[in-house]
Amino acid sequence: MTRVVEPRFRPKSRRWPLMYAYLVECGGSSKTTSATSKAVIAAERGYPSTIFDLDSNMSTTKVLGYDETSLKGKKTVLDLIHCTASLDEVALPARYRIADGYGDEAFQTIPNLRVVPSCAAMSSADTAITEDIDRYDWFADVLRSYDGDDDMFFIDFPAGYGRMVYSVIRMLDEDDAVIPSVRADPKDINMIPGLIQELERVREKNRGRRSVPGRPTLKHMLLTGTPTASYKEAAARRATELAEAKYGSVLLPYVRYSADAKKLYEDACPLPVLLPNSVPAVDYRKVMTHLGFTGRT
Ligand SMILES: Nc1ncnc2c1ncn2[C@@H]1O[C@H](COP(=O)(O)OP(=O)(O)OP(=O)(O)O)[C@@H](O)[C@H]1O
Ligand SMILES: [Mg+2]
């Protein structure tokens, strides 16, 4: 029997899941850390989810257990763009490393979470879409043919607004959330107006269209690396004040600074699993509670 999915995860009674899109044209802004941490917490709390890695840097893919070696011979998100595989053929069980090697015993699976892996060739996705106009519809096709019972789709984007990004965000509706995850640094905060402008451009372009929702909306903003008792950088404090003044109405609870945050890449393990008691992991759990992912019993 298929699980009955709560209506909040199927806005407007559509057949595909609610989407959280981590997007902002700012390299190293904490998109991947936030996307992977929140997807893992959702899964741990009993909300089955799929996370899409759309970035050729493969950060999400690696943090969730798959590097180039483990992906040999496997399909990736590029196969979805080229229509050479279905979502169920591409999505892999999320996992993390617990020992050396590549056998099954080297990894622990994360229940309730699948990852759609990226690949280095995703850097050519914009060109692939430009060469064949039908490929613009790749993500629309993934959604329209979706028949599963995930609660959520989490989407990790590269730091830019190219054609591939457009092909995805035009499928977002106002119920879905674009969530810029930015570091408490004035340089990151200053990238937000560009995102707002891009979302407006996408909405404007699709106004009146019936075949795609075309309403990506900045619903929440995540501020990470905020000051703590031991981390008192003046720039972080200034950035936090700036974010509060300009974007207070969409700000989620803060994710505080910790030097531990970078360890997820060294150990190829998502932060809430690797260091569940670190301040960012504690804060990401608060954020998920705030967003209504309180846990199922
Ligand atoms: N709460 C935090 N405290 C301190 N450092 C953090 C925190 N969150 C993330 N970082 C650090 O910020 C850096 C960038 O993070 P991340 O890779 O998640 O960003 P990104 O936006 O996905 O980057 P890219 O554009 O390269 O994909 C990493 O070194 C990460 O460890
Ligand atoms: Mg990233």
Task: Provide structural commentary.
The structure is a single chain. With 297 residues, the protein is an alpha/beta fold. It has a single domain (14-287), classed as P-loop containing nucleotide triphosphate hydrolases (Rossmann fold, 3-Layer(aba) Sandwich), CATH 3.40.50. The protein has helices at 31-44, 59-63, 68-71, 77-81, 87-90, 125-131, 138-144, 163-169, 186-189, 192-206, 234-247, 263-267, 271-274, 279-290; strands at residues 18-22, 49-53, 92-97, 107-116, 152-156, 177-178, 181-183, 222-226, 255-256. The protein has a 6-stranded mixed sheet. Strands 7-8-9 form a 3-stranded parallel sheet. β8, α11 and β9 form a beta-alpha-beta unit. It is globular and about 50 Å long. The model has no long low-confidence stretch (mean pLDDT 96). Bound molecules: adenosine-5'-triphosphate and magnesium ion. Residues 27-33, 55, 57, 59, 159, 224-225, 255, 257-258, 261-262, 280 line the site of adenosine-5'-triphosphate.
Short description:
The chain has helices at about 30-45, 60-65, 70, 75-80, 85-90, 125-130, 140-145, 165-170, 185-190, 190-205, 235-245, 265, 270-275, 280-290, and strands spanning about 20, 50-55, 90-95, 105-115, 150-155, 175-180, 180-185, 220-225, 255. With about 300 residues, it is of the alpha/beta class. The protein has a single domain, classed as Rossmann fold (3-Layer(aba) Sandwich).
Give the CATH class.
Alpha Beta
H and E string: EHEHHHHEEHHEHEEHHEHEHHH
Strand content: 5-15%
| CATH topology annotation | Rossmann fold
Described by strand count, sense and barrel closure, the largest sheet is: 6 strands, mixed
SS class: alpha/beta
* Hetero compounds: adenosine-5'-triphosphate, magnesium ion
